[in-house]
Amino acid sequence: MTLPTVTPVDLSQAPRLRASIDGKAKPLGALGRIEDLAARLALIAGERPLDRALLLVFAGDHGLTAEGVSAYPSSVTQAMVATFLAGKASANAFARAVGAELRVVDAGVDAELPSHPNLLAQKLRRGTRNAAVEPALTPEEVDRALEAGARIAREAAAEGFEILALGEMGIGNTASAALLMHRLAPAPLAECVGRGTGHDDAGLAHKLAALERAAARSDATEPAAVLAEFGGLEIAMMAGAVIGAASARIPVLVDGFIASAAALAAIRMVPAAQDYCVFCHRSAERGHQRMMAALEVEPLLDLGLRLGEGTGALLALPVVRAASRLISDVASLDDVLSGRL
Fold first, then answer.
1. pLDDT (tens digit, 9 = 90+) per residue, 206-226?
2. Contact 86, 151 (CB under 8 A)
3. DSSP states along 237-258
4. In Å, what is the CA distance from 119 to each residue of 61, 74, 113, 282, 323?
């Protein structure tokens, strides 16, 4: 496997950036966490406004759905991909509202999808294997997914995108994400498993039992091996995209529980990738708060979201854009008081 090199941000510049922010025409600390975000963005991409944004929605199916871990059939993945490409999903509406472009990546949908200008055909196989009875992916498939994700992110940066947002679509992927969190946070499995798309109490208990069988099959803890055991293709490809974007020095807007699991895998492989991640919202999915604690991060928003698709990342995008302008666009207090505007 060949992944691009990620250079940690230069923390020696942080005191200078904080001094610049502290000297702006505002009371000290008056913009709260926006000031912290502005400094982080400047460390990532320089002291410039960040505007052009792309949401990549990675789509894939999961063999685990054969165990009844989702309240919906796998066919919904294909149907939702068609909805994205028709411009009619929640993520499309939010992308239009905040001025972001949206593309769908077919990482492993269990269907042959017709070509479309906004569809990136990267299918490695039609869905993963059933992780309750065998590894979801081979090591080679994981490597190829990581490499594809990194390449897609770097190509987006070369195209001129300054912000990369990550979303996903895949029936059963909260189950895979829970297993990844269990091993990589790490955390007790019961604390990682949530209701996903609409389980009642009985459905949640059934889901946990299926994931306990999957977890008992393997003691893998190394990130690539955990991805191979539990999938999925869209999660592995998102992890690669985190690494690729970080190598290109563009901020990565991480959506909710599943995108955070992909970021967790990327960070466990390449710790410096965390410098480039902006965790956008605290998901209502059980386990997400514990995952954020494991990464020692505080998400920007808390709106009770649990849809996925990148919707939370899109809602955070205006906050990120605004923060990027604090250093470049706001006058210093000295300039205000001296009349040098």
1. 999 999 999 999 999 999 999
2. no
3. HHHHHHHHHHHTT--EEE-SHH
4. 16, 19, 9, 28, 31
pTM for this predicted structure: 0.96
d(CA 183, CA 158): 34
What type of residue is 193? V
Strand, helix or coil for residue 105: strand
Residue type at 222 in one-letter notation: E
| Per-residue pLDDT tens over the stretch 177-187 | 999 999 999 99
Backbone angles phi, psi at 224, to 5 degrees: -65, -35
Check the CA dihedral 218-222-225-229 and report its sign: positive
Strand order in the sheet with 101-108: 119-121, 101-108, 53-60, 163-169, 252-254, 277-279
Residue 237: both structure tokens together:
């490809």
Which residues have a catalytic role annotated? Answer: 309
